[in-house]
Amino acid sequence: MTAYFADVRALARKDLLLELRARDTLPAMLLFVLATFVVFHFALPSGSSELAASGLLWVAIVFTALLGLGRAFVPEREQRVFDALVLAPSDRSAIWLAKALATLAFLAAAEVVALPVFAAFFHGINGATIGGVLLADLGICAVGTFVGAMATATRTRDLLLPLLFLPLAIPIVIGGVGASVVDDPARYLAFLAVYDLIFATICWASFEYVVTE
Prior knowledge:
The chain is mainly α. The protein has nine helices and no strands. The two termini are 26 Å apart.
């Protein structure tokens, strides 16, 4: 088990260092989500409900995450080292976990900037919304990394990733919007936690079979 987490740490560290040097993924995510909020700010009619604004927040989060997920396996694909990772003497699920953690770090960093901007443009952020964002991020990165690994082996990867990911993200949007607007958000937060647990377990257990096909 110690060796497993050492592999995860090494792989995640590699992705984080590559991003620090190249600065490709995080700036793009930040620019996208901030530009989205600016567009929504001027496009949303004045006096729109809190529900409408919260829905736009979650749409922005999902598509910002999709932008990061689309870049997750680009270094391996460009350098042709994905096969080497698969053949390395380590548990292949460590690749999935490390990629998910690195993507989670990028998404969280983008949200640290984006959420205050959303609060300034639309309405305040309460604790339930922050809790929903954290739980949603776990599910987004778990499922999105899994789907990204499936898509990266195909010629239509740029088309396949959103087609596979967005339907799976619908429950996250439902849970996130519910947690943001209802008076008792506990059941929506519990729904997001159950979603994370189920899909993270499925992705972790089946990742090896995906990358060997």
